[in-house]
Amino acid sequence: MTLKDGSLSYHDLPPSGFTPKIGFALGGGVGRGWAHIGVVRAIVASGIVPDIISGTSIGALIGGCYLAGKLDQVEAFARGLSRRRVFGLLDISFGGSGLIAGHKLTRHLQEELGDIRIEDLDGAFTCVATELGTGHEIWLRSGNMVEAMRASYALPGIFEPVQIGGRYLVDGALVNPVPVSVCRAFGARVVVAVNLNSDLFGRGTTVMHPLPPAPADALPDVELDEALGSGKSVKHLLKRQFLSRGDGPPGITGVMMESFNIIQDRITRSRLAGDPPDVTIGPKLGDIGLFDFHRAEESIAIGYETGLRAVAEIREFITALT
Predict the structure, then answer these.
(1) Percent of the chain predicted with pLDDT > 90
(2) 79-101: per-residue pLDDT in tens?
(3) Nearest in space to 35 (alpha carbons), one of 72, 54, 62
(4) CB-based contacts of 229: which residues, under 8 Å, 6+ apart?
(5) pTM of the full predicted structure?
(6) Which residues are annotated as catalytic?
(7) From CA 275, how far away is CA 216, in angstroms rounded?
């Protein structure tokens, strides 16, 4: 009960021995997202277990699999990925509303998770997605977990939107990249946020610089018709678009992913400034890129070490509220 002076009555004070609810807000990060596995393992191994998990994009995937008791299987899958295997999972779609249909990845998830429903998990779990057309932030808290995860990681233009309840949903990072607000809404007193893009320095600045002359080789050296005429396959061209390296112009997907990452970074700064977590964990993932799913071993190790370093700070917050 709130008194006239704005204070709380003794009835609202936590009882002796009260343990505050702990929330994990796991952010998006595409190929960097395997670091969530290491972070979660390190914190849980220390005896700190989340009561609430909210996840966006790959954060929803890892958070949901942890609560479903499938983190070991996801980690084994991630560690087994190579560049070739990653490309093998990309079922290219030319007739849909995304470059990747996503059926192969969905089958892998269904093999592990089956028909598990969110409401049947041991802990409170929320997937964050974005509704096309309205831009509404959608919190998925019930229903088939695989479908909810798919909606949360459906990168616009890359994966096809997922239809749930008559709504077409795409990646939640468009509206809430690190969903601290979701944990707060469902009663978390201590919120631990994992921001996988915190080490991307230099974003958000303004640079005034004259444009240099365009290099002679600025245009792609191989057009599609020429490539097909020389015997190169469309699959080879698409592989170059997804997994290309070097100093040349980025492929189509590289442009889309980097543009999405810039938007996500701006939104993350704004959201976390307005609703800051109690503890922010930012693994320093260095040059691990958005499409480097094959570098899971590095990402998980970095996440684990970063999670261990955050344990003492999390304990301080818990103790202060106990």
Answers:
(1) 55
(2) 999 988 888 877 676 666 766 77
(3) 62
(4) none
(5) 0.80
(6) 57, 171
(7) 48
